[in-house]
Input
Amino acid sequence: MKRMMILLLALLLFVPAMGEENVGNRLAGAMYRIVLRTGEGDVPLGSGVLFVQKDLLLTAEACCQEGSLHAIGLDGEFPIVHGEKAPGGGVAILQMAGESAGEPLALAGYESSVLPWLFGSSVEGKLANLPLTGVTDSRLGELDAIVLRSAEGLLPGAIAADQNGDIIALVVAQQAEGRGMYIALDPVGILMSVNAHAEDAFPEAAARWEDGALAITWEDGTRQGGAYCIIISSESNSYYTTFTEDAQARSASLLLPAGHAYQWQVQWVPEGGEPELVYGRMAETRTAAEPLTDHGFRQECGLVCGPGGLVSAEELPMLTRVTAALIQDEGTDMYLQAINTYDVEETIECPMLVELIAPDGQFFFESYAYTFAPEYEAHDSYAIPVEGLFDICREFSGGELPQGEYTLRYFIGGKVAGECTFTLEE
Output
């Protein structure tokens, strides 16, 4: 199932005003009756409207039931292949087996004017519209809601729309007291229902930069299974990275390249679930890069091209200009060659990162380990493969390595041990 609920959190589309005929056509093409198919026939449950995608329906929670559900609209009938109820209640998203010929509706903006009608499915299982005669405030659990007054006969999932055909309110239930009174959520209520999991799934967390790692701690109650997912991103990158800790964990230390601002969030995910990036829950930690001066450390480094499996000893000419053809040559591999000197009396193990920074500012990194050893302190020469970094860069750059100046850096113990630059040409 596509991440249906997270799509709602970011959506608020503006559409130019339409004429009444165009609005009517748009609503008719986006509206579907939802029925439960049984051995005795179809049982009308309500209605849903196309939302976000041509195969997704926004509807009331009451329409998301077990059994054989079908959506019936002007362009035919679609089986429902998946349903998902919003954590805050009242709202659900249904996925149809195919794409509709209609266009998805959007949530209305604050300046919208409501049309004097409710559009939905009648208790007889037919698409209908009834006059809207009044609106009052109400509650639905923890959510602010409204009561729409109209004639009797509409099932859950009906909507009130604005002059563009966008959604002003979604009917989630019929009020027990009074005839023709429908409990509904406005666009804010719909988003709050979908986002209700955020306060529960996102524990209070704090982070600090420590020894080249982002140290994150969080507080949370007892969790039954599942896992904590830490999502890391940066304003420079078009991707994000996920780290996973078990349900008993309350801290994590993530080795990252210094010198960047990181956006991050901690999210508990139930077993079998997937983390969903929620931008409103991202925190930021800025990091500063420090040079490595411990143990009298000195170095020389550069990009080299050599045979596969190169580790150390053989020192090759360092390159300042390369081509994509050379990087992709299957007969050779690319390496960061480093020649270090230092002064230690005993073996010291340290974490090491190698980072590739592309011309557009995106950066990619891999982790290794480094050993300070007395027997190599006068001349410690080694080669670190960077083919994988070029592959990742290519993947997140539209399939081609961008031309321009690149930087390779390597970190030992969280500090910048060395860096080099080279230019990728045609």
In short: The radius of gyration is 29 Å.
